[in-house]
Structures are given as C-alpha cells and as structure tokens.
Request: fold
Amino acid sequence: MRPTLTRQDRFGFVHPALDAHTLGISSMAQILAECGFESVQADATVCEAVGALDNPASIPIIERWLRDDRITALGFSYRLDPEDGAAACGRLVSQMKRRRLFTDQGGTVKAIYFGGLPLACQLVERDIPEVTAVFAGDETPAECLRLLGIDTRLLPSEIAAGATYDEDRLAFGRNLIQRADYRGIKRVDRKASKGFGTDQETLWDRIHHGTQCGLPPLMRAHVGPYLPDRQSAVKLFFEWTKQLADSGLLDVLSIGTSQLTQSNFGDDWGNRPNGGGVPLNSPEEFAETWRIARPMLVRSYAGTRDVVDLARMFERTIHIAWHALSLWWFSRIDGRGPYSVRDNLQQHLETLRFIASTGKPYEPNVPHHFAFRGADDVTYIVSAVLAARAAKAQGVRTLVLQIMLNTPKATWGIQDLAKARALLQLVREIEDEHFHVFLQPRGGLDYFSPDAEKAKAQLAAVTALMDDIEPHDPTSPPLIHVVSYSEGSHLADPAVVNESIQVTRYALEQYRRLRARGHIDDMAKHPQVTERTAELLSEARTVLESIERTVPAPYSAEGLYNILVQGFLPIPYLWECKDEFPKATAWSTRLMSGSVKVVDAQGRVITARERMRLTTDPL
Reply:
C-alpha cells in the first residue's frame, strides 16, 4: 500500500559514497521543490555510512541524519552493479527495521524508495516488499510523482502544462504501439531521385526529390554489430547491410564503426580491445559496404587520427553522403582520440576545407557532447552555432544540423522545442545562396527505456516532438536520425532498425493527421515555448557577441580553442583535461523546470550577460 504524502512530509536522498551518479537525485529534488516539498541530500559522512552498512558505527549515523533532518520519506540510489545495488538496499531496509525506524514500528519513516539500474529495480521489487516504489530512470515527472504518492495536481500550473505535453505525447505513443498498425508501413519509392542509388546521387538530390513529391523524411540509422572475431563481425555487418537494402525502409546507412576503426585504421590491431561497433579496417571493406548497400546512401563516423586521410578514403569508397566532425571532441578531452584539443581543432578545420572542396554536407557532431558534460541550454545552442559559423568560414556550403532531443533525458518537451527553435533560427540566419541548412532531429542517447514496449512508445512520442519543432512546415524535418527503440537494452539488428523506422514514420503520419483535425494542441505559438525561445535567443546572442568581440579569429582552430579555454562554454562534468580548462569547468549548472541553467553557489541563475562580464573581465 503506497502512502499518500503531503507537504508536511520531508524527503531525504542518499547514495553510497562510491556511486557518483547523482543526476537522478538532483532531478527528483527539483521536481519535489517545484511541488512545494522539502528535500535534503545526505552529506559525505552519511553517504559513506550507507556504503558501509556492515560497520556497526554506520547505522547510528544514518539514524541521526533521519531524525535531525525530520525525514519521513527516504530515497536510496545505487546505479552501479545491479545485484550489489539490490543487496545494499536489502541491508539498509533490514537495519532500519532492526532499529524500528518505520512508522508501522513506531518510527518516523513512512516510505522508502529505490533508484537503480533496471535489473536492480526488478530484484528489489521481487525481494524487498518494504520498498514503496522503484525508479529505473525512464520515468516522466508525472510518473515520478505518482510513484512517490504525490498528487500531480500539486504541480504549479506552468510546470503542469509542460508535464501535460510530455504525458500526452507518451499516451499518443502508447496508443499507437498498442494498435500496432505501424507494421503496415512500407518502403518509399524514391527511384525518380536524380542518380538514384549511384555514386553520383547526393543528399541534396534525395531530399529535393522527396520534398517535391511530398514523400516522408529520409530515415537514417546507425548500424554496427560487434563480435570478438573481427572477420565474423564484418561478415555479419555485410549480411545486415544486405537485409536493410532489400527491405528498403532505411534511406541512409550510417556505419557504426569501432573505436579502432576510427583511431587506428589500417594498422595491425593484434589483440587490442576494440569496444563496440563494426571493425572495418581496409578501404576494400568500406567499398564492399557501399556495393552491398545499394540503393541506400551511406555515411560513417569520422576518424580520430589522420582525420583528413580517412575523410578522403570515405569519398573514394562509400561516396559518403555527408561528413561529421566533433571539433573539440573525440580527442584527449573525452578519451576518444589521440590528439590534444588544439591539434584536434586544427585537423578538423583542415578536414572542413577538404569537405568544402567536395561540395558534400557537414554535420557538426558537437552540442550534445557539451550537454553530456553538464552544459546549460545556452551553451548547447552556442556550441552548435560556433560549429556552423566555422564550417561556413571554411567554405562548407551545406550543413546537416543534428539536434539531439531529450538531452539530458530529464529535459521537458517544451524546453526541447524552445532549444531547437532557437538553435535553428540562429543557424538559419547565416543561410544565403552559398550556405543551406537541413534539420535532422533525433532522440536522446539515454532516453529510451530498457522495456521494449515503453521504448517504442517513447520513440513515437519523440517523433511527435520532432514534428512540433516546425509544425506547419510539411517538409520539416527533411531528415530524421532514427534511434532504435532497443537503445536502452541491446544492439539493434535489421529487424529492430526496420521496426523503429516503421514506428517513426507512422507516428509522424498519425500525429500530423491529429493536428489537422484539431485533436492535439498546436505548439506553433505555445506561450511557454515562445517565451523560452525568446529568452534562449537573447542569451545565446549575448554569448556569441561577446565571443566575437573578445576572441581573435574565433572561427579559426586557435580561436575555437581559446573560446573553451576562456570559459565561454561551461562543462562542469568534464573528467579529462580538467587542468587545461579550469574556467570551463568552474561553472555550475542545474536542472530547472526541465531546462539546464548556469547557477551560482546558492542556486541562483546567472544570466548570460552576467556570465560574460565574469568571463571577459580581467582578473
């Protein structure tokens, strides 16, 4: 029986000291604060005690914390090994029962919750009946409140509106998946596209044909199986590529290459560990991929070493549909490449000049890497605009603007819409007869539930979100990066990729039909989205203007390096190269009403104007 909580209850959150995964705790605390509930996060001493429950001195420390902070609802988080997490939760509950801390024993704690990996949650639900509810991390804010036993009507009206939008889209997704009509989606006939399936066909050709004929957006997906034996993995990849080509649902095959393909292409790898992805290691294997993939367009990850040479090889072998580079990232700063950030930028700008010479489009694989490391929404936007301006400065004529939604996954839909619209507007402002932008939205990397049916509903829901970026433009988006619904649980094979495409296309079709009939809210002029978009535009312009005023040659390799060094782009969760970028890591950010903002030590929002003054003023 789940107790009903009121604002007289006080939440306490704790995790073992060895578990640094606290974003979920912070998100939950923020939701509670917005509903008028008080919560407290345990300090280091209590966290150490929770991680050492076999020590007789630990329980008195925890008991004193519960009493002194008047905690009536306890949340325990453990996001490392699932079995260890379930066992730790069991020990905590046993010790609390032994000390008679629960209300049915005369104590003060009326509810205890567990947050952990999906398997840990399953084990806790099965073995520890005293736990009130479990949180696997894929819950919406409204779902969180229901599991906590809090009436969702306690949400402030402006926050409830955002939660309602997300809940309505998820309900749309659930209904769509339950009916399963999406399985009737068939391949799109694109044979009339100029040069269809040949080495002369371009992304421009296929998008232009689709737009002129009123066809669905192009579907792009990553594919890259990994097996311990390299030859077996390559063979399986070729088989998958043939299956996808024959089914005709996938328009753009994005080769998910292995780490060694990216960092040590052409070398003798020996017994070096490779990680995930398909381990292609010769131009002949890439050329064979293109041959088997007919008539799909093909692209691949960039290299992290000899970046220009690998880009040239992609042009010769897979006639790459478009290139993607990460500028600051996929270097020593994230452990993904051998180059320093400065050297990486030099390589990437040289590669951009090569891309410009080919006339191929460029995709900045940039802003979500900042978001992964705690950057605020303004920094997400600014980093992408910097990448776009740098590309244009090097002569690139077409930009594929990837916007990763649900990043971080606690982001609310109305915030995602505002962020996407602000970014799209700023990048389109540099469009002219020599520079064009194609929007390519996608779901977040860690957004999808490990539960397959829920993940399919989430895929439909995020597709609806994509369509709401420009809801009255039937040609937008022209291109969708389909993240397979299995992302949260296992690698996507052709069957999963094809089903994910069917869900995406059917969701887009049905959502547009519902909008045309007035059965869903028209988000084009949603007041909260409009207000937040204007705020983000103003804040981003302030940062960009400050950069262009104070950083010499900002779109050169040295300029882009100095932008990061001088702290214009906050990345508080950076782990590598922290000593090189102390001004970038010195900022703090916080999730607030489904958005991420820069805050001071007291949690007060720091505006872009104030931050620019602190960034550019001499010490």
Observations:
- The first helix runs from residue 23 to 34.
- The chain has three domains: 10-155, 174-516, 529-616.
